[in-house]
Amino acid sequence: MKVLVPVKRVIDYNVKVRVKADGSGVDLANVKMSMNPFDEIAVEEAIRLKEKGAATEIVVVSVGVKQAQETLRTALAMGADRAILVVAAEDVHTDIEPLAVAKIIAKVAAEEQPGLIITGKQAIDNDMNATGQMVAALLGWAQASFASAVEIAGDAAKVTREVDGGLQTIEVKLPAVITADLRLNEPRYASLPNIMKAKKKELAEKTAADYGVDVSPRLTVVKTAEPAGRAAGIKVGSVDELIGKLKDAGVI
User: What is the number of other CB atoms lying within 10 angstroms of the CB of residue 153?
Assistant: First the structure.
């Protein structure tokens, strides 16, 4: 079974995000970029499925700018077999919207014919949490979102999902789309030998036009602003005073 894993290039999760002075977006100048953490979990899960014998080939795909080659090389160094880069923008500040990304991934899936697509549940830069579901809808495949455990048995996948108040286990027929949650696994580090090997692995480069997909934005970002700072706390001298303050704040 072939597994397709979409990955996205985002600001590294350890970097403090800075907003441009004019509020037009996030400042990406001299900022470290890396693979979206949830997508990294998806790549790891695909590798584990291959190690168990449930998968035979892992193909990673990224939609964005040419610099996403670095992100794909990271996935190849982790253990993916080959990569596809779909160049859909020239400016690193251009974020391709989920619907356009989903259409391209669906076209890639139609070409590659994978038995399973695993992607992160969301990207940490825009938190849309929509691409995986849209891909499943476009392909007409079953979907299992927010997976915290995945088990492949024959032509079906058993997926455990975290829901309010507990865990839900569902079974979907393959081919299917699974979106990875934080607790699905802990991604491995790419070793130096594997990083060197990744440079020789196949990385095909295409464009959005090759798939006939219009990536023109449908949304307009009106303003980007940093979160407001937290107000200073106060100390209370008794339980009665605490209750009074909570009442004043409308909490109780």
Answer: 10
Residue 217 CA to residue 213 CA, distance in Å, equals 12
In CATH, the number for domain 2-248 is 3.40.50.620
What is the per-residue DSSP string for 132-198?
Answer: HHHHHHHHT-EEEEEEEEEEEETTEEEEEEEETTEEEEEEEESSEEEEE-GGG--PPPPPHHHHHHH
CA distance 107 to 180: 21
pLDDT grade for 4, boundaries at 50, 70 and 90: very high
On the question of pLDDT at 234 being above 90, the answer is no
SS3 content of the chain, % helix, strand, coil (to 5): 30, 30, 40
Query: What's the token pair of residue 145?
Result: 């979102």
**Ramachandran category for residue 23: left, alpha or beta (phi over 0 → left; psi -120 to 50 → alpha):** left
Say how many residues make up the chain: 252
Please give the pLDDT value at position 176: 98
Q: Which residues contact 82 (CB under 8 A, 6 or more apart)?
A: 57, 59, 60, 76, 201, 202, 203, 204
How much is the pTM? 0.88
Query: What letter would DSSP give residue 203?
Result: E
> From the CB of residue 210, how many other CB atoms can be counted at a distance below 10 Å?
12
Cα separation, 94 vs 65, in Å, equals 9
Question: Which amino acid belongs to residue 23?
Answer: G
Question: pLDDT tens-digit profile of 34-82?
Answer: 999 999 999 999 999 999 999 999 999 999 999 999 999 999 999 999 9
By the 10 Å C-beta count (0-12 exposed, 13-18 middle, 19+ buried), 199 is classed as exposed
